[in-house]
Specification:
By secondary structure, the chain is an all-beta fold. The protein has 3 domains: about 100 residues, Immunoglobulin-like (Sandwich), CATH 2.60.40.10; about 80 residues, Sandwich (Immunoglobulin-like); about 100 residues, Cadherins (Immunoglobulin-like, Sandwich). About 0% of the residues lie in helices and about 45% in strands. The chain is built from no helices and 29 strands.
């Protein structure tokens, strides 16, 4: 008479099979398969029948504020009451639309936009039973702007008295409108916080730079500091044609000059003049006693230079009447 034998074979951490037969029992251990398997909890013994369904206890996203193009990872806690190995299936959604389903625990979407909702749904299976799905959701966060450079106007050389303007070269990966803040430095000391810097009172050799920060309304960029800009020399200039003074037929003009760099070593000279006219190089006093033969109109060009040899000239005309010399009615400046 044959005896029926019931043999329960348990694969190490795998699926349990019940084999019914006569005589010798055949034992086969199930082998887990698939690329995504959760590590089982401590074995609770052999499963009976269909066993109990796995449980997904927690799903979280890392990072919690995903960004476009940055990998998003699903962190899952799951176990099986029977101690079976688990296969995890992930369904990724963007704004409620399925984009990927499979065994991939991470995802990178370059086309995400700020405010999009990303969701991952996870189901665990032990090969016989599937868990209830568990979900995690997150909103795509803001990406800060970046200042890549600045454009300073006027282009070098900048001279004392110029108004220097800055135009930031910036971008925002989310396409947000940007506001800017500025901080001007002169020789390392803060000078102003406007978009423009007025350089009156500065001198040749002073160093300028500007720090720019972009703001998209949510985040600010890292500060961008421009390269230093050194002020060039500013040539002096004659301020105006002075009133003529006469004394016994001698015409006297007292010229004055202004140098934005504060250079005190200014020198006057005559670039063109009628015969007999002279100017004091230091005081700027011009004198001339015209002769009777010099009646008519005479161009006069007075110049001034600074200690660096840079200068400007001033051109005007002197009209000598037949009887009485007079000052010119008009003048012009180069």
């Amino acid at each position: 008479m044959q005896r029926k034998q019931i043999i329960q074979a348990i694969g190490g951490g795998g699926f349990a099979f019940l084999l019914l037969g006569c005589g010798e029992a055949q034992v086969e251990a199930a082998r887990p398969s698939g690329a995504s398997m959760a590590t089982p909890a401590a074995s609770h013994g052999a499963g009976q029948g269909q066993g109990e369904a796995p449980i997904v206890r927690d799903v979280r996203m890392n990072p919690s504020r995903p960004l476009a193009g940055v990998p998003i990872e699903a962190l899952v806690e799951a176990d099986d009451p029977d101690g079976d190995a688990l296969r995890l299936t992930y369904t990724w959604r963007v704004n409620g639309r399925d984009v990927v389903t499979g065994a991939r625990p991470s995802l990178s979407l370059p086309d995400l936009a700020k405010g999009d909702e990303v969701e991952v749904e996870v189901v665990a299976s032990d090969g016989r039973n599937a868990s209830e799905p568990r979900k995690a959701r997150a909103r795509v966060g803001n990406r800060p702007p970046m200042v890549a450079g600045v454009d300073l106007q006027p282009e070098s050389p900048v001279r004392a008295g110029d108004v220097v303007k800055v135009s930031p070269l910036a971008r925002d990966p989310d396409g947000d409108d940007l506001d800017y803040s500025y901080r001007w430095l002169v020789n390392g000391v803060e000078r102003g916080r406007d978009r423009e810097l007025r350089t009156e009172g500065l001198r040749s050799g002073d160093r300028l730079s500007v720090e720019v920060v972009a703001d998209d309304g949510t985040d600010r960029s890292k500060p961008f500091m421009s390269p230093e800009l050194q002020l060039g020399n500013t040539p002096p200039r004659i301020t105006q044609l002075p009133d003529v003074q006469t004394d016994s037929g001698v015409f006297t003009y007292q010229f004055e000059a202004y140098d934005a760099d504060g250079d005190r070593n200014l020198r006057f000279f005559l670039d063109q003049s009628p015969a007999g006219m002279a100017i004091d190089a230091i005081t700027g006093e011009l004198q001339w006693r015209p002769k009777a033969s010099q009646a008519g109109v005479h161009p006069v060009e007075v110049g001034v230079t600074d200690s660096q040899g840079e200068g400007t000239t001033f051109l005007f005309e002197v009209t000598v009447a037949t009887e009485t010399p007079s000052t010119p009615p008009a003048s012009r400046e180069d």
